[in-house]
Amino acid sequence: MCGIAGMTGTGSDISLVARMNDSIRHRGPDGDGLWSAPGVAFGHRRLRIIDLSEAGRQPMSTPDGRYTIIFNGEVYNYIELRAELPDVRWRSKSDTEVILHAYARWGADALKKFVGMYALAIWDEQERELFVARDRLGIKPLYYTHLDGNFLFASEIRALLTAGAQRTVNERVLYDFLARDFYEHNDETFFEGIYKLPPASWMRVRDGRAKTPHTYWSLADEAAQIAVSADPAEREETLLALCRDAVDLHLRSDVPVGIALSGGLDSATLLCLLDQVHPDPTRVEAFSFAFAEAQYSERPFVEIMAQQTGRRAHFVEMSAHQFADSAAKYTESQEEPYAGAPISAYAMCYEQVRAHDFIVVMDGSGIDEGLAGYGRFQPAHWADLFNAGRFDVLEAELNAGGITTPEKRARAFEQMFNASRPHSDVGMGQDLTTSIRPDCLNPDFVAAAHTPIPAFERPFGDNLRNLMYRELRYTKLPRALRFRDRLSMAVGTELRPPFLDHRLLAYEFALPAEDRIYNGTSKAILRRAAARLLPDAVRMASKRSVQTPQREWFRGELKDWVRERIDTPSFWARGWVDPDKGRAAIEGFIAGEGDNSFFLWQWINLELWAETFLEGSFA
């Protein structure tokens, strides 16, 4: 796990790459490496996870010097891949060397063999060509830009800004963020001219010019090739076996491993599976966060699971003023706007992980996306039942959800209709009239930056899986992966999400709909299968998203801070939010109007971001 930076083109400059590399030193505090040849320069920051010896250093070249690699991430099945390359004389025990020789043997097709998370760059000296690639889900980042006829890339945007990329706001992305709560949904960033390589993509660069990215994996295609048993019990066993195998692979490490826990089904399942494949409780410890406000704290649920498995649990507790005091710090580490108090709480958790000398931490991300865990998925399921003429099942589902009055039924059918539309202006399935305030945007900004509503890809034959895919590929998951990568790597900690193993996701997307939602219950197959692992109080508990007391803070002890951060000449002068409407919205919320404080955080965060990245300096 590391950070990478580099450039190719006639102006390639190793001293410039060295400065880029230094800007991401937090990603790899254990060492650095530089390499150059005519027309190319590579930089690498090392966080030692697998093969702690000097033999695992990067940049790394093949013995003949043709290929040189820099790599960020982990390919967990590197041991199995070594066996497919019996003629290689290995110089290390690292996954990096396996990736390098796999590419030398199979070219871009090597990516199809990898199980893991990665962003990599390989220089082919014979072809004078750069190859860059990113893992199937986009767990690890790769940003790029063109500057003075050269192609520059890095793990983080700050490296490109350090190299001289323009600090100009991308108003199209900013508009989507403010008006629709869309971000991370395409290859653009909040910075004009800086892009990210899409997930499951590779790209070649020659003479400083990038070619069109090539997609090497399709979730829909892989899911379509999976034969699913008609026996529910067999499907449950297969699901648990895939989960167990993923957890086992993600434990491959030469340094201690921790686990980030919430009190929910997903992380509880992860903990129990971890207990099966790594039963020593002294080797893997649990970490979580809490709030002083009891109604928002997951601590009681986490303590129950830690006690059940005999693992030591560590907690951090975030207060309102800790959140306010750390807002600028985490804005700087995120590089782009982010989602508020939950992110700050995660950051404190990862800081604690590192303080206890754990270099690797696992979490339960991915189950909700693979098994329709969010309540906002249900209208799409209802729409599928309606379209299939399964009205008796639809009736049962609506009744199970307490949707029995004419008013609730009318709302449900409206949601069903919206779930069937290829275009949608709802970023996260929430009510945009309360979560964000597009009505407060400056008309001149709207006229200049307005973009069409995205029409997301719909590769499946049903509404439910298309909505799940949208969140996995374009909306929910990409932003969560960015948040967590920056927060964990800011303190030199590797975050591993075993439930985002692509083989497990493909199986989940191949399952019948009733294994996702049944009788009003989400993640139905996991709840059945988890009867082998978990107490019913955890197994059957309703989905609890990560909630924070941000609303109460912004109306209470942080209300003056909210005013001080937004109601400033610099914020209004940016021209994004109308001052009169904005001030009225602030005061209305503080006085008790509405329940969602996200629009206030959007504005605070944007001002902090602009001060740091558009005008100021960053570490």
What does this structure look like?
- With 619 residues, the chain is of the alpha+beta class.
- It folds into four domains: 2-217, Aminohydrolase, N-terminal nucleophile (Ntn) domain (Glutamine Phosphoribosylpyrophosphate, subunit 1, domain 1); 220-370 and 472-539, Rossmann fold, CATH 3.40.50; 375-439 and 449-470, no CATH class; 550-615, no CATH class.
- Helix 9 (299-309) links the parallel strand 15 and strand 16.
- The two termini are 21 Å apart.
Brief write-up:
With 619 residues, the protein is of the alpha+beta class. It folds into four domains: 2-217, Glutamine Phosphoribosylpyrophosphate, subunit 1, domain 1 (4-Layer Sandwich), CATH 3.60.20.10; 220-370 and 472-539, Rossmann fold (3-Layer(aba) Sandwich); 375-439 and 449-470, no CATH class; 550-615, no CATH class.
Produce the secondary structure layout.
Blueprint: E1 2-8, H1 14-23, E2 32-37, E3 40-46, E4 60-61, E5 67-75, H2 78-83, H3 95-106, E6 116-124, E7 129-134, E8 143-147, E9 150-154, H4 157-162, H5 171-180, E10 195-196, E11 201-206, E12 209-210, E13 214-215, H6 219-224, H7 232-250, E14 257-260, H8 265-277, E15 284-291, H9 299-309, E16 313-318, H10 320-334, H11 341-355, E17 360-362, H12 367-370, H13 378-387, H14 391-400, H15 406-419, H16 432-435, H17 443-449, H18 463-473, H19 476-489, E18 494-496, H20 502-510, E19 517-518, E20 521-522, H21 524-529, H22 536-539, H23 550-555, H24 559-566, H25 569-573, H26 579-590, H27 598-615
Parallel strand pairs: 14-15, 14-17, 15-16, 17-18
Antiparallel strand pairs: 1-3, 1-9, 2-3, 4-5, 5-6, 6-7, 7-11, 8-9, 8-10, 11-12, 11-13, 19-20
Helix pairs in contact: 5-17, 7-8, 7-20, 8-9, 10-11, 10-27, 11-19, 13-15, 13-18
